[in-house]
Amino acid sequence: PYNPGGATLDDGENRARLRALETELDARGIDWFPVDGHGASSDHVEHGVAIVAEMPVVREVCVRERQTAFF
């Protein structure tokens, strides 16, 4: 949930968004585990989650969280 729509948010807001997503996934009974996304040509790191669910569920969460990529 870091930097929705490519907008740069401060670390505190990004961490709060991540905690809220983790809480929501737990409440919905959706399995997940922590992952870090790393830029190939930079030191940029975004903390996130890998969601263990069917693609429609993953897509729904990613679209709502305004993520520019998911896999």
Enumerate the strands of the largest sheet in spatial order, edge to edge or round the barrel.
Answer: 1-2
Query: What general outline do the C-alpha atoms trace?
Result: globular
Instruction: Give the distance, in angstroms, between the N- and C-terminal Cα atoms.
Output: 14 Å
Tell me the number of strands.
Answer: 2
Helicity level, as a percent range?
25-40%
* Whole-number mean pLDDT: 91
Class from secondary-structure proportions = alpha+beta
In percent terms, what proportion of residues is strand?
15-25%
Q: What is the succession of H and E elements?
A: HEEH
Q: What ranges have pLDDT less than 50 throughout 5 or more consecutive residues?
A: none
Question: What kind of sheet is the major sheet?
Answer: 2 strands, antiparallel
Radius of gyration: 12 Å
Number of helices: 2
Key terms for this structure?
71 residues; two-stranded antiparallel ribbon; 23% strand; globular
Can you describe this structure?
The protein is α+β, with helices and mostly antiparallel strands. It contains two helices and two strands; from the N terminus they run H-E-E-H. A two-stranded antiparallel ribbon has the order 1-2. The longest helix is centred in the first third of the chain and has 18 residues, at 11-28. It is globular, with a radius of gyration of 12 Å. The mean pLDDT is 91.
